[in-house]
Amino acid sequence: MEGVPRVPEQRGPAQSGTLRFSVLGPVRAWRGEQPLPTGSPQQRALLAALLLREGRTATAAELIDALWGEEPPSQALAAVRTYASRLRKALDPGVLVSESGGYAVRGPGEGALDLADAQEHAARADKARSAGDLCRARELLRRALSLWDGEPLAGVPGPYAEAQRVRLEEWRLQLLESCLDMDLEQGCHAEAVSELTALTAAHPLRERLRELLMLALYRSGRQAEALAVYADTRRLLADELGVDPRPGLRELQQRILQADPALAEPSSPVAEPAVVAVRPAQLPATVPDFTGRSSFVAELSEVLASAEGRVMAVSALAGIGGVGKTTLAVHVAHQARAVFPDGQLYVDLQGAGPRAAEPETVLGSFLRALGTADSAIPDSLEERAALYRSVLDGRRVLVLLDNARDAAQVRPLLPGTEGCAALVTSRVRMVDLAGAHLVDLDVMSPDEALSLFTRIVGEDRVAGEREAALDVVAACGFLPLAIRIAASRLAARRTWTVSVLAAKLADERRRLDELQAGDLAVKATFELGYGQLEPAQARAFRLLGLADGPDMSLEAAAAVLDLSVDDTEDVLESLVDTSLLESAAPGRYRFHDLVRLYARACAERDEHPPGEREAAMSRLLDFYLATAAGVYAIERPGDRLVDHLEQTAFPGLRFSDRHAARDWLYAEANCLLACVSQSVGNSGLRRAVDLLWAAKDLAESGANGLGYGAAATAAREAAQARDDGRAEARARITLTEAHLVAGRFAQADEEARHAASLIADFDDAALNCWVPNHCGVIAVYRNRHDEGAAFLRQAITNFRVDGNLAGEASALCNLSRSHLAMGDTAIAIDLAQQGVDIYDRLGHTLRGANGRYALGLALAQAEELDEAAEQFTQALGGFRESRQRLWEGMTIFRLAEVGLAKNRPAQAAALAEQSLAMLRGIGGDWRRGNVLTLLGKALHQVDQVDRAKACWHDALSLYEALGAAEAADIKELLLPTRTAQSVR
């Protein structure tokens, strides 16, 4: 709690009588959790002097000198004795002892003094770093630094305390430099920029911090700023001290100018610290009845065993679908686990389907599995691949890349370091994968096929029907997947004989041929399994394959099948048993992409009446719309949009709290957007559009902006093609949302104007409210303030007519921003406060944060800076809780503005850096330009002039590309006559 002294870190369980002391902040003492009185400043000075002697005796003369220096009071000795007596009474008996004419503190055990703890953490960090364990070293240094609680020996008088304060602060900075150095070694350069910016502002003459900042900026792709830091440093050192930068700093500048490739990657990157060492074990389970392939197993095992002495061992298995590539690769990988003690990574690259996995996404998953924190994972493919190779350096890890599309998809995922190896499976031969050991996997031999069939079905059932069994495996084309499916079905039907199964497969339409065309052969393989399904299983197989999403929840599947959740789970688990469906996670299911295509073909061929296909997808759309509307209602109490959405015939889920509701929305984002895109082309158009509108948090969060925008575009085009003005207007409003979040204000303006022109032709209460609201917001962004105010007043009126209190609050806050832009500060504050009051009455968290954001803007312009900061801080908490990354980043930016206005440029610069990191990839270039402009102003005021100019040049490039009016302001800032005082 704020205002309550922090108790120093404890190593073990707290004991009620344990004495603990702190000097890395105010000098304090505790017995257990109970603070003890330490008396006057001079008495605390005496205690500090004794504690810092680490049990050694201090004479009375030494203590007098420590407390008063060269001018002690006449009764100094008596005062020292009095202080010691009082402390002795406050502490445990035998702790403060008198001996040899002086005093000492004895007895406190391990963990009793925060400084001793910090020293031990630092010593252990040095050992860990020397041993190459940077993760552990960094963690220990952060623990040591966390023990500081403000200024050491705060408020303690005397020359001894002053000297110790200087010493401890210098040590803290050295620890910080070491920790930040390791941050950069581990690839956490983007995150380090903010902290280094604040530190260099606070300690402008400390060259090591400047050097680390240059390196962090350079590795973040900000070369101009890195060079500007050097220019600022050289000028500052010359002005203040009359010296040049030290050689190491000059050398770094030259390496940056030369774009030295060695600077681009961390020197010793490893994974982000974790509680325990991360050893991924991602291999799927091997099949217990693996059969045959002995020559391939031996060949691949030999290649993998040679990994220790080679730069990289890569084996690529190629073959048609169902030939057993994955089964063989997984089996070999499990056998080779002992050769790769540091772990095994696995991914299905989905290369056979229309949406192959992106290497960037896979690398992100691998880096997390190897212990790298999300915040340390860079954005670009090249940076992720470089960090991935660095993290694997020195480890012995096996990487299994299953179902690859081509060599281009695989190359960034290869380890590239000695001791690691990769196994790749694909339907194509990877002749262009340099250095790979290629293996072509054919169908099984007749003996192997019969052995596999026998192991699954059982020796007792096959022994008397060997010829029939040979007929079965021959009909399967000796394809392992087909054999496994057929044998599994027979094993599950105790009343069938092998001859019955052979007779069922005798029909050539159901029998595998010589597999001359890969897709055709796979289809024949799946036909075997599908033909043996029970009617309920076959119906589920067909209908579930219709949905486009990457997977499907159990509840969504129940909607598709129009069954209870329990019945749905039974039929889905039975499909998992046949290998026609996969269990992606508890409660979630997915098809292999080729199986999905086959399931759809079966639905087109076998589903009767044909309308059942459309009915199944309609139920899925209803489920998503009803559930998303429920989420919207929980997140926005009092908002009547849900009353104006299309009605659904199939119910959705109900949630008891908004956290569970929000979790569902983000978990289902990809499936939900896929359903929208799939439904806009049929009778579900209006419901699909409304689903987008109800799920608009996906756009506002920034996390799913691209997918949301694509679905909204598809909806608009479908509505235009069907000449459905109402659906088109609603689709355009959702597209307006997507453009606004991305900072594409011209496109948002165009969509909103089109929507406004359409609503005159029909009566739609929701559109009558939200279209003028959006038009007003866009007009404010585009500096058409009178027009924006008129739109927003119309929106307020319409919201009130509709009884939509939450909408009214939104429009009031937006109108506040319009008046703010026109200089009507008092009106702006009043309007924003009205909006906040409504939100508070309704119990809004997310929209309440929006209201406080608007109120903070108005208060900041009124120069009520403390109140503005309070509103922004409350808004920030709401946005973080609601996962609104865009608005979280923008609120941090506004806090930076307040910091600069309060003449705290170092704080403002650090916050601006945080905002830049938060807005990476979302919000658009205009917002990024605004943050860079502010960052430049803050840096200019802490005399980092060249770096400030680099920020402004970056902002100018963004503004000029957008044709933004702010470009003129930046050109004014870049005038050579500008001083720190004139930059506000």
Task: Provide the fold topology.
Elements: E1 19-22, E2 28-31, E3 34-36, H1 41-52, E4 58-59, H2 60-68, H3 76-90, E5 96-99, E6 102-105, H4 114-130, H5 134-146, H6 159-185, H7 189-202, H8 207-219, H9 223-240, H10 247-257, H11 294-305, E7 313-318, H12 325-335, E8 344-348, H13 359-369, H14 381-392, E9 398-404, H15 407-410, E10 421-426, E11 437-440, H16 446-457, H17 459-462, H18 466-475, H19 480-492, H20 498-504, H21 518-531, H22 535-544, E12 552-553, H23 554-561, H24 565-577, E13 582-585, E14 588-590, H25 593-606, H26 611-635, H27 658-667, H28 669-679, H29 685-694, H30 697-700, H31 705-721, H32 725-741, H33 745-758, H34 765-781, H35 785-802, H36 805-821, H37 825-842, H38 846-861, H39 865-881, H40 885-901, H41 905-918, H42 924-941, H43 945-962, H44 966-973
Parallel strand pairs: 7-10, 7-11, 8-9, 9-10
Antiparallel strand pairs: 1-2, 2-3, 4-6, 5-6, 12-14, 13-14
Helix pairs in contact: 1-3, 4-5, 5-6, 6-8, 7-8, 7-41, 8-9, 8-10, 9-10, 9-43, 11-12, 13-14, 16-18, 16-19, 18-20, 19-21, 22-24, 22-25, 23-24, 23-26, 26-27, 26-28, 26-29, 28-29, 28-31, 29-31, 29-32, 31-32, 32-33, 32-34, 33-34, 34-35, 34-36, 35-36, 36-37, 36-38, 37-38, 38-39, 38-40, 39-40, ...
